[in-house]
Specification:
The protein is α/β, with parallel strands linked by helices. Helices cover 27% and strands 18% of the residues. It has 2 domains: 111 residues, no CATH class; 190 residues, Dihydrofolate Reductase, subunit A (3-Layer(aba) Sandwich), CATH 3.40.430.10. The longest helix has 17 residues. It binds NADP nicotinamide-adenine-dinucleotide phosphate (NAP).
């Protein structure tokens, strides 16, 4: 059984090592390979789960795929006997089977915390390191579906556990994509700071060229940065690690096809992509059907106004709604919904 600091950090390193096995430098100091195209990568949407599903939702299946640090040890599961922490347990899909939880003895104190943290990390992140290519989106929204106030203030809609989760997602991808609106509103860094991991390439979708060259991610040199613009945007002069790229829009003024963005990144060896926001950008990727997964965290907060989360074309009846396979995990006071969009 593993021992750690109660936050699952040893388990996190095991996940990063697994990522490294896929060809991405997961651990700081790893060989930077992300700019080299990999053989065996796939176009967005193909599946590499051994069981043919991209959405394993039971710990048993995950353990069967790739046990990390002994988490396939059924004796460890028996240690959950007597746990009263239903909040944590509710966050672990498949754990509500009391038979699985019953056992002869209970784990106490730090052992118990370690076990829960490790198990949760495995359940959330192991599916993300089973594939060489991945397109995942994330958003943190209020109960009433807002990601920021009307002035664009969004720090922070969700709590520290979700922010840590966001940094973990960044650490697991080759590239993090944001829309021009997010760069203008937040002046973000998009780096991995809250957990161990390597910064992804930063990608800004800015078809009209409205983002200032003074934006922090164009100046801080902390990671390679791609500034994707359309032919109608004013010319820029960029120098490494910032690179300006021109991409044709579907029709001028209508924005890039998300599939074209993914292809452009794949041509540069960037096969694992996090679409980090904001709502317009994530909605376009979702509507285009190019997302494998969507991590949507809901915070117990009501705004009643502000920037919207997901917006899709209207449907008249509920049978037309998207009803993806879903797992959920408690992240502090927030709830992460892990939506699997490619069953
Ligand atoms: N809570 C969260 O999780 C979260 C995450 C990120 C951001 N935010 C907040 O969300 C707000 C910004 O979100 P937002 O929805 O207003 O804007 P956004 O999604 O950040 O940016 C939208 C803009 O990006 C460009 N863009 C995005 N996808 C494109 C595509 N496929 N093709 C061409 N251009 C594309 C377009 O720029 P043009 O308009 O120039 O055409 C588009 O209008 C900010 O207030 C930020 O703080 C919250």
């Amino acid at each position: 059984m593993i021992r750690n600091n109660g936050h699952g950090e040893e388990q996190w390193d095991a996940i990063l090592e697994r990522l490294q096995g896929l060809g991405r430098p997961g651990l700081p100091g790893g060989v930077p390979e992300r700019s080299r195209p990999r053989s065996g990568g796939r176009q967005a949407g193909s599946q590499t789960e051994p069981d043919g599903s991209n959405c394993p939702d039971r710990l048993d299946e995950l353990n069967g795929l790739d046990p990390l640090n002994g988490l396939d040890d059924r004796d460890v599961l028996h240690g959950l006997n007597g746990s009263e922490d239903r909040d944590v347990l509710h966050g672990m899909n498949g754990s509500e089977d009391r038979d699985e939880l019953n056992g002869p003895e209970g784990l106490k104190g730090l052992d118990h915390a370690n076990f829960l943290a490790d198990r949760k990390l495995t359940e959330i992140y192991l599916p993300l390191v089973q594939t060489t290519a991945l397109v995942i989106a994330q958003l943190g929204q209020t109960l009433d579906g807002r990601i920021a106030t009307r002035t664009g203030h969004s720090h922070f809609v969700t709590g520290p556990e979700d922010i840590r989760h966001l940094h973990r997602l960044r650490a697991l991808v080759d590239a993090v994509v944001v829309g021009a609106g997010t760069v203008v509103a937040d002046d973000p860094q998009l780096t991995v700071r809250k957990v161990r991991g390597v910064n992804p390439v930063r990608v800004v979708l800015d078809p009209s060229g409205r983002v200032s060259p003074q934006a922090r991610l164009f100046r801080d040199r902390s990671a390679p940065t791609l500034w994707i613009r359309s032919p109608r945007a004013p010319a820029i002069r960029a120098s490494k690690p910032v690179e300006g790229l021109i991409l044709d829009e579907e029709t001028p003024g209508q924005g890039f096809r998300p599939a074209d963005v993914i292809t452009l990144l794949a041509e540069r060896g960037l096969h694992r992509i996090l679409v980090e926001g904001g709502g317009i950008t994530v909605s376009r990727f979702l509507a285009a059907g190019v997302l494998d997964r969507f991590h949507l965290t809901v915070a117990p907060l009501l705004l009643g106004s502000g920037r919207g989360s997901v917006t899709l074309a209207p449907v008249d009846t509920l049978d037309r709604a998207l009803r993806p396979q879903c797992r959920h995990f408690a992240l502090g006071r927030d709830m992460l919904f892990d939506l699997c969009l490619r069953p």
